[in-house]
Specification:
The protein is of the alpha/beta class. The protein has one domain: Trna Endonuclease, Chain: A, domain 1 (3-Layer(aba) Sandwich), CATH 3.40.1350. It is built from 3 helices and 6 strands; from the N terminus they run H-E-E-H-E-E-H-E-E. It is globular, with a radius of gyration of 17 Å.
Length: 161
């Protein structure tokens, strides 16, 4: 059995979303942000919450307030963000140090033929409504819009909310 999927024309929003999330994950990594998929699944190597142990809801290096926010938002209500990420200080010989910045990241994906006039009103799907609460907990909140182009390329726009 064989099938061809035209990614440039597909209307399968879950497929488009997954592709955009993988592109965004790679983009974050290029900026030294180690992103953990919230409510993770394959193919992401790092997912939150972690699989086992009593520190299942603790991301090393985050403050108690940040870890509390993550745990509460994960356990109570729908998943609000796609990734939680940390940027750590660089130390000698490639080792990493304390957390420099903590991020919550929402990813939206579109085709090149779609037009997004604004990052808030023009996006299909919800922007997390608790951005201010996340900021108060010490997170920087990022919105990444991935635009899938027709030539196996994509455009990436990253904005802080």
């Amino acid at each position: 059995m064989s099938e061809t999927i035209d990614l440039a024309r597909t209307m399968d929003s879950s497929l488009i979303g997954v592709i955009g999330e993988i592109v965004a994950w790679k983009y974050l990594r290029s900026g030294r942000i180690w992103a953990h998929r919230i409510g993770g699944w394959y193919p992401f190597p790092a997912c939150y919450p972690f699989h086992t142990g009593k520190s299942r809801y603790v991301l090393r290096g985050l403050s108690q307030r940040q870890n509390g926010y993550l745990k509460n938002s994960y356990l109570h209500g729908p998943r609000r963000y796609d990734f939680v990420g940390v940027k750590r200080r660089r130390l000698a010989l490639g080792s990493v140090g304390d957390v420099e910045e903590a991020y919550l990241v929402e990813v939206k994906t579109t085709h090149s033929r779609s037009v997004r006039y604004s990052l808030r009103g023009g996006l299909k799907g919800k922007i997390p409504s608790d951005v201010e609460k996340a900021k108060a907990a010490g997170f920087r909140v990022l919105l990444i819009v991935v635009t899938l182009l027709n030539d196996w390329k994509c455009g990436i726009v990253c904005r802080e909310l």
